[in-house]
Amino acid sequence: MSSAVVTRFAPSPTGYLHIGGARTALFNWLYARGRGGKFLLRIEDTDRARSTPEATQAILNGMAWLGLDHDGEAVSQFEGAARHADVAHQMLAQGDAYKCFATQDEIAAFREAAKAAGTSTLYRSPWRDTPAADHPDAPFVVRLKAPQDGATVINDEVQGTVTWQNDQLDDMVLLRSDGTPVYMLAVVVDDHDMGVTHVIRGDDHLANAARQSLIYRAMGWDLPTYAHIPLIHGPDGKKLSKRHGALGVEEYQAMGYPAAGMRNYLARLGWSHGDDEFFTDAQAVEWFGTDGIGKSPARLDFKKLENICGQHIAVAEDAALLHELHGYLTSIDVAPLTDAQNKLMLAAMPVLKERAKTFGELVEKAYFILGERPFTPDEKAAKNLDDVSRGILSELTPQLQTVSWDRDTLFDAVTQAAESHGMKMGKLAGPLRAALAGRSVTPSVFDMMLVIGREETCARLKDAAAS
């Protein structure tokens, strides 16, 4: 495989890492990692009023949680402003750009008149071909001298061949009147300087590709390979917004989804590999390509997300799961686990991860470890503790203090205790759950006993019998 592939993720630090941005980052990461290439990060912080260090950190945190490591240091677009301006001046010197002295009022008046007349509002600057000798001593912007006939064509890996008639493209501004470069110029210069070979981004940037390609061509630079991916829509088919629920990646961490499940689900949003729904990171890296990206918007489906996350929790290594659980607890401001709890959680993990779709569900199942004695049964569990069942628990406790502590022996001891009162073993499960966890829905009573051990089991049974 060629090592020449370079992709990039270029978010604006004006808020959290959006779920759509996270998928874009993932696609770029998968594409680069599957081809021995580089995945770069550029923070597009040219909007100084809205860019904040907190938002930059939120983006970095979101990427770290998702496990999307980038190569080298993150690049600040703002810090390259002088380089971006140099390119504009170079285009000016070679005749591919010009100084435009039109004022905002003049441009606005032109557009109003064009609207009223029902003609094109595409602004054509009267300064495009004015000789330098006739330039006034006044503020100016630098505009790209776009071709006015023919067509601009982009061969897009997802959208196919896309054509714009050049008479529909304006002479876009490259430098503002204060000499600062605009975003459209900065993107092109940065992508070129960073050696970006593949630009994978949302299809809301497709029109930008036409205008940006004109800068590449003016500078004699190779165009990157473009792949414009459809946006993510909500379950109702409308553009994703706050009304659909969580938008920031960190919110998904706080909702208890494992990162591996999130990566798997995001990869499947708009990309497919046959009928495969569940796959590992290694498989995603091996399989991912732009040929598997569809042209239609993908729909967010929380049921599918939960289903895939449950499968990832089930197959995850216990120690890795415990490590990620710590991150989840931090994200919801819960105190870290004690050493004793960590030890018990690790021992219980094979049982806890069965059928848990989120870390929240896993924590709920682990209440018998994370709760404290004396366990006060909740309303449902309390119904299982009556005088008869308390009496049986009282009789069972001394027996458990002497038997071998293994599943078969514990099963036999509980079965005998139930049968001696003319009931099936299953009837005693409810009172045992209430005693051991204070809950009616828990892991198997024998699993709980084996995890917490003889001393703690007997202590909890005594508590319940005396309550």
Summarize the helices and strands and which ones pair or pack:
Blueprint (H helix, E strand, L loop, with lengths): L5 E4 L9 H15 L4 E6 L9 H14 L8 E2 L4 H13 L3 E4 L3 H14 L23 E4 L6 E6 L3 E6 L7 E3 L7 H11 L4 E5 L3 H14 L5 E5 L2 E2 L15 H6 L4 H10 L12 H7 L10 E2 L2 H14 L2 H14 L7 H14 L6 H7 L1 H4 L8 H4 L4 H14 L6 H13 L5 H13 L7 H22 L1
Parallel strand pairs: 1-2, 2-3, 9-10, 11-12
Antiparallel strand pairs: 4-5, 5-8, 6-7
Helix pairs in contact: 3-5, 5-6, 8-10, 11-12, 12-19, 16-17, 16-19, 17-18, 18-19
Write a structural description:
By secondary structure, this protein is mainly alpha-helical. It has three domains: 80-229, HUPs (Rossmann fold, 3-Layer(aba) Sandwich), CATH 3.40.50; 244-363, 3-Layer(aba) Sandwich (Rossmann fold), CATH 3.40.50.620; 379-466, Arc Repressor Mutant, subunit A (Orthogonal Bundle). The protein is 48% helix and 10% strand. It contains 19 helices and twelve strands. A three-stranded parallel beta sheet has the order 1-2-3. Strands 4-5-8 form a three-stranded antiparallel beta sheet. The protein has a two-stranded antiparallel sheet with strand order 6-7. α16 (387-400) packs across α19 (445-466), α17 (407-419) packs across α18 (425-437) and α18 (425-437) crosses α19 (445-466). The longest helix has 22 residues, at 445-466.
Mean pLDDT: 95
| Number of discrete helical segments | 19
Number of strands: 12
Strand order of the largest sheet: 1-2-3
As residue ranges, the low-confidence spans are none
* CATH architecture group name of the largest domain: 3-Layer(aba) Sandwich
Task: Give the domain tally.
Answer: 3
Biggest β-sheet description = 3 strands, parallel
Q: Write down the CATH class of the largest domain.
A: Alpha Beta
CATH topology of the largest domain: Rossmann fold
Instruction: Indicate the proportion of strand residues.
Output: 5-15%
Helix content: 40-55%
CATH homologous superfamily label of the largest domain? HUPs
Tell me the Rg in angstroms: 31 Å
Q: What is the global morphology?
A: elongated
Distance between the termini: 69 Å
